[in-house]
UniProtKB/TrEMBL annotation:
Lineage: Eukaryota, Metazoa, Chordata, Craniata, Vertebrata
Keywords tagged on the record: Cytoplasm, Endoplasmic reticulum, ER-Golgi transport, Golgi apparatus, Transport
GO CC, one annotated term: perinuclear region of cytoplasm
Gene3D superfamilies assigned: 3.30.450.70
Coiled-coil intervals: none
Originating organism: Vireo altiloquus
Homology family: Belongs to the TRAPP small subunits family. Sedlin subfamily.
The protein's name in its UniProt record: Trafficking protein particle complex subunit 2-like protein
Cross-referenced PANTHER family: TRAFFICKING PROTEIN PARTICLE COMPLEX SUBUNIT 2 (PTHR12403)
Compartmental location: Cytoplasm, Perinuclear region; Endoplasmic reticulum; Golgi apparatus
Length: 139
């Protein structure tokens, strides 16, 4: 389903980034980092509008010719960015939400690990397996 999944720290540096195919990895890094401006705009707009603060899903950040970029932010301001192939028209908004919830739950499991230092890059086999399962559904 997804071609790139990234976890970005509160200070906007990547904690985890995974993309397929790997030959376009630099392009996906650029796409993820350019989407952070849109994430910041949406977060500040939510604060002004006094919307329900429990809504973590930001929705479609922006579409490109080949991809659609979706965003999600946690209560601790950690950002999840997912890049999906535009040709996948069967993917609905509620499926994207459930993918982000699954990603957030897995991230929470990492945070609960007493051997993980918050702010370090994520090196977890369980997290890799979960991300790979979300990416393999498209292949």
């Amino acid at each position: 389903m997804a071609v790139c999944i990234a976890v970005i720290a509160k200070e906007n540096y990547p904690l985890y980034i995974r993309s397929i195919p790997t030959e376009n990895e630099l392009k996906f890094h650029y796409t993820v980092h350019t989407s952070l401006d849109v994430v910041d705009e949406k977060i500040s707009a939510m604060g002004k509008a006094l919307v329900d603060q429990r809504e973590l899903y930001l929705g479609l950040l922006y579409p490109t010719e080949d991809y659609k970029v979706y965003g999600y932010v946690t209560n601790s301001k950690v950002k999840f960015v997912m890049v999906v192939d535009s040709s996948n028209t069967a993917l609905r908004d509620n499926e994207i939400r459930s993918m982000f919830r699954k990603l957030h739950n897995s991230y929470t499991d990492i945070m609960c690990n007493p051997f993980y230092n918050p702010g370090d890059r994520i090196h977890s086999r369980a997290f890799d397996t979960m991300v790979n399962s979300m990416m393999m559904q498209v292949c």
